[in-house]
Amino acid sequence: MQEDNFKVTPWEVSGRVDYKKLIQQFGTQKISKSILEEISRISQGRLHVMLRRDIFFSHRDLDLILKDYREKRGFFLYTGRAPSMGMHIGHLVPFLFTKWLQDVFNVNVYIEITDDEKFMRNQEYTLKQTSEWAHQNILDIIAVGFNPDKTFIFKDTEYIRNMYPLVTSIAKKLNFSQIKATFGMDASSNIGILFYPAIQIFPTMFEKKRCLIPAAIDQDPYWRLQRDLAESLGYYKAAEIHSKFLPPLASSDGKMSSSIPESAVYLSDPPKTVEKKIMKYAFSGGQATTELQRKLGADLRVDVPYQWLYYIFEENDGEMQKITEDYSSGRMLTGEVKKILAQKVNLLLEDHRKNREKAEENYTRFLYDGKLAKQMWEKIHS
Ligand code: TYM
User: What is the number of alpha carbons within 13 Å of residue 377 lying toward its C-beta?
Assistant: First the structure.
């Protein structure tokens, strides 16, 4: 991957990702027009902005998921999160989209919180920390608005007793060479993290139906391993729908990182901070002076505020078209685009904060005593 000047793994995304090339490298499929048309029909013409604008751009077996839906066999959704101190806007992408899929298809959603993964991957973190972050991140996830009767959120360190028998069957089918080749680990990696892929694969087998995983494309290596072994255990190969990465504020390369605060907008950032980060740090494709901008217009391919608006924050196609034309031709200046973005981000975060305040009330329903959660705790997976 080196010669392409970009890298995508579950732990590192760097360089300007060429998504067309990535589809070839990973061996996935571009989401076709006919798939989009079918989802549009099912959603009564209200295709999600992330599908309309190609952020969710690639898949494996999404056609089979739609077939299972058409033929009433059904399917379920699975996604997850390795807890960290705070969630940023990029982390919200798969959850917003998964909630929309749940509403459209009326299916169960399983959300894995990998407090174990986070702990084992970083020598400096304690389990107490990752467990506290898990709690905070779960409140953010609940605030997205999932259906409490059809959603099960679980922390690995808690649910392990119920999953362990099936996890051992998965682990038995994975050898060190595969893990090494898939994730680039070596003999110095701790044995917990070598074993961990079995735990992330396991929820794809929660039901004897096909599983659809919405996530950014960085998670794909796990699903490749899953697809090699699932059928031998009597389960379906996982289907996936992959998103691109929302770029960090400060450059259009790589993905947002929680460890570089100015590169990300956090869900907990107050309005003034959001405004300041966007106005000060967001990388602009506009020209150096107003005069030049009026003459030459902005380079939209590298302009981060434009991309954030395009991918998520300006859902109205007509408005987006106007911004595209005016900004690229120089009628609009960077400051104006940044202002629109800051307003939109703050609107979303204000809504999110309100929902988050109520999330604690529903916490136990999602984790322990809601309809689906209760069923899951009664089950030992083997
Ligand atoms: P984590 O916590 O790194 O990321 C959570 C989810 O957010 C996606 N993501 C992004 N999407 C768009 N733009 C970005 N800038 C961006 N940054 C992160 C990730 O792809 C992921 O979907 N090992 C996983 C946790 C996990 C999981 C899963 C994820 C367990 N089971 C099943 C997806 C599906 C992790 O570290 O995610």
Answer: 17
> Measured from the CB, is residue 112 less than 6 Å from ligand 1?
yes
Tens digit of each residue's pLDDT (9 = 90 or more) over 327-354: 999 999 999 999 999 999 999 999 999 9
Predicted confidence (pLDDT) per residue in 232-242, tens digit = 999 999 999 99
Write down the residue that tokens 């940044």 correspond to. Answer: 338
Structural domains for the chain = 6-249 (3.40.50.620), 261-355 (1.10.240.10)
Residue (of 212, 202, 179) closest to 64 by Cα position: 212
Neighbours of 360 (CB within 10 A): 12
- As beta bridge partners, residue 280 has none
Q: What is the pTM of this model?
A: 0.96
Query: Does ligand 1 lie within 6 Å of residue 83's CB atom?
Result: no
Ligand 1 atom with minimal separation from the 216 CA: 20
Encoded tokens for 288:
């150096």
Q: Output the six-digit token pair for 309.
A: 């608006």
